[in-house]
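Work package 3, deliverable 3.1, input record:
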Amino acid sequence: MKKMSKLSAVYLIVVFFILYAPIFYLIFYSFNSGGTMYQFEGFTFDWYKELFKDSRLLIIVLNTIIIALLSAAISTIIGVAGALAIAYSRKRRVKNTLLSLNNVLIVSPDVIIGASFLILFTMIGIKLGLISVLLSHIAFCVPIVVIMVLPKIEEMSPTMMFAALDLGASRWDVLSKVVLPYITPGIFAGFFMALTYSLDDFAVTFFVTGNGFTTLSVEIYSLARRGVSLNINALSTILFIFTMILVIGYYYIAKRNRPNGMGDRR
Amino acid sequence: MKDNIIIRFEHVTKQYDNDPPVLNDVCFEIERGKFYTLLGPSGCGKTTILRLIAGFIGPSQGNIYFNGKIINHVPANKRQVNTVFQDYALFPHLNVFENVAFGLRIKKLKNAEITEKVKEALRFVNLKGYENREISEMSGGQRQRVAIVRAIVNEPEVLLLDEPLSALDLKLRTEMQYELRELQRRLGITFIFVTHDQEEALAMSDEIFVLNNGKIEQSGTPTDIYDEPINRFVANFIGESNIVSGKMIKDYVVEFAGKTFDCVDKGFNPNETVEIVIRPEDLEITPKDQGKLQVRIDSQLFRGVHYEIICYDQDGNEWLVHSTRKVKVGDEIGLHFDPEAIHVMRLGETEEEFDKRLENY
């Protein structure tokens, strides 16, 4: 038993090292004053300073954040409504079909989603840019929100809704005073998941973005194509740290399953 | 119609799709201010009756009256009844105060009034000072009380309780039985209590409805039902019974186990085949030659309060005896019982016929 756990510990360390090493390698060289990725000459913030001087880049960061917040917010609203519809659909067949359709969207490759959106937008004549990126981000975030919210709804005891009705609550009261507060942790989890998915999406965005509008991941890709510059490292580092913050935020909310202080809400 | 009738079921049937009916042509009346118990095995329809009264479901046929008005189509949130659920169904995202205040807030009472009522109600069940507790911090018994307060703070005319004690341990359950009974007396409102536990029903109720297969088998006070069960099902379900078949020779004389005995029942046809009920605690162990019946002891089980002894007579009838005295397995003993201990049941008798016959005594 003891031996096994040692072995598994080593295995885990190796796996995580392989997974994280490239990222930390990249982060490490973003502080290199030498300008190459194989010889560390000295510590510098120059690459970051250069990034922040570049107003075009700042606009891209802003675009990325706006897209992420908007698409997360809108897909959370749509996703919660969808999850409620799936959870309370009377017929088992309808429920299973809806759930399968939802899950297919999660597992289908981004490239296919991106390409199909490109075809759709050009066909119905939506100009490629902020709107097209926003719409496609909402589209791939909704299934994620549904998946995050659904278990919380299903865990809710149905007698709780009977209890609310019994105490005189209307259907709207049941939804707003019992169901929604109860599933709030799930809603937050869904929102944060959608935020991270939108923030670091490359494939879909790459297809549907047009001239003059781009997000960070697409920008990093085009910088990397142009040639090696430690700018990319700095930018990637910022993106990585930002995503980490979101993940930590997500875990913090997920852990607080039953938030206090909700009782004062009406 | 009488004034003190608050709920009346008139030929109510509840059926889902083409399944056999959950409730089959049920009629009964509930009087104001009494403690009623719906008792029966699981699947007998007792919870269905409760849900029909609460308004979560509607009847397939028949009418339900509340204060003399048909309420078949009145939705649950417009009825003057409140329910205590089996799993309590408290809102985990609200604290104790807000759980209790839920119904009052829906009614849009003023904040000061809500605070006063909730505090008063919590004091009523000894939960003063628990206002700001989260539900997860409360014990099972405390949650139970919160669930009750949440219901009664709305001042319902009828309180429905759906097996509210089944999740508690034995000691707490006994305590809560006393508390509930006391609470009902102090509030003076009608309680309708659903349970499958016959001891609970006997201990708490003014009136018991025994249900089986979607029908009311018998209704009456606990002593009526215990002492005069209408048929084999009721006799078996309420307490433990020895049921043997016999013959009514004439009034006050019955024959079973190959002997004739004096009894207190009459009104049967001469030589009518009947079933005899004798409760195990009414059987007294005597030396073999002094008993009315001679039996051989087959097994003995210690139950704490008494020994549970199983014996057989020479006809092979099983006799269950509760005795505080220990006996030896394999011994032959006598059993003594009073004429009053014999209860005679007519086969296939309906409750109306049964009541009529009893009135003639």
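The interface with chain B takes residues 157, 159-160, 162-170, 173, 177-178, 181-182, 184, 258-260, 262-264, 266 of chain A (CB under 8 Å).
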